[in-house]
Amino acid sequence: MKHVFFIFLFFLLCVSCSPKVITGLYSTALPGQISFVNQQLKLNEDGTFIYNYASDDLNSNQKGKGKYQLLDRKLILTFESFDAGISLMTKNKASSKFNNVLRLLVQDLDDRPLVGVSLTLRDLENKLIIRGITNEKGNCVLPWKEGQSPGSIEASYIGFSNFIGAVNQDTSLDYTISMSHTYRAIEAGTVWEYLAKKTGQDRMVLVRDNRKSTFVKIQE
C-alpha cells in the first residue's frame, strides 16, 4: 500500500510539472486590433518557449527562447542563447519569358510574406533606376530600360533591419529576400518568474514585478 502511495505521489508531481496544459501561441494584443506594444509567448509541448516583445519604439524590441516550467501557480522562463538571425538574399531561376525585369519575393525569416516593403533598384554607379512596394503576397516586379545596368537592390521595412544586396548582370532576375527583425536578443541565463493568476483554454493572466499582463491564445 505504501509503495502504491509513492507511485501515485510521483504521478501527481509529474502532472503538475507538465507544460502541456498551456501549450500554444499567446499574445497580449487581441487578434484584429492595432497595438503599439505587444508581447507574444509560444509555449511548446517539449517545455521550450519563444518570447517576442514588439513596440513602436523599435529599440525596445526583444526576442528570446529557452525552457519553461509551471510550478505552484508560477510560470518560470529560463532563457538560453538565441541568434536573432540576419537578412539574406537568395537567387532563384529566372523565367526566360521576361527581359529587363527583376522579380522579387520578400519575406521574414519564418518564410511569411511581408506586405508594403519599400524596394529600390540602383545601377552599378549607385544611381536610382526604379522604386517599388511589395503586394499582399510579398511580391514585386521592377523593370529597367535598355542600356541600364542593375547593380544592387535595397529593402526597407518598419521593424526590420534594412537590407542591401548586389544583383547579377543578367537580363532577367529573380530573387527572394528574407529580412530579419530589429530585435535585441535576451541574454542567456536570464530568468523571469511570473505568478500565474489564471490559466485556461484561451488565456493566461501573468504577473511579474507587480505588472499584470493578460495573454490570449491566438494559435494552438
Mean pLDDT: 88
**Approximately how much helix is present in the residues?**
under 10%
- Residue stretches low in confidence (pLDDT < 50, at least 5 long) are 4-19
**What oligomeric state best describes the polypeptide chains here?**
single chain
Tell me the number of helical segments per DSSP (H or I, 4 or more residues long): 1
Largest sheet: number of strands, sense, barrel closure: 8 strands, antiparallel, barrel
First-to-last CA distance? 40 Å
Structural class: mainly beta
Order of helices and strands: HEEEEEEEEEEEEEEEEE
CA-based shape: elongated
Give a written overview of the molecule:
This protein is mainly β. The chain has one helix at 2-17; strands at residues 24-27, 37-43, 48-55, 62-71, 74-80, 88-91, 101-108, 118-123, 128-133, 139-143, 150-156, 163-166, 172-179, 184-185, 191-199, 203-208, 211-219. The strands form three sheets. An eight-stranded antiparallel β-barrel has the order 1-2-3-4-5-15-16-17. A hairpin with a 3-residue loop joins strand 15 and strand 16 (203-208). The longest helix is centred in the first third of the chain and has 16 residues, at 2-17. It is elongated, with a radius of gyration of 23 Å. Mean pLDDT is 88; it is low at 4-19.
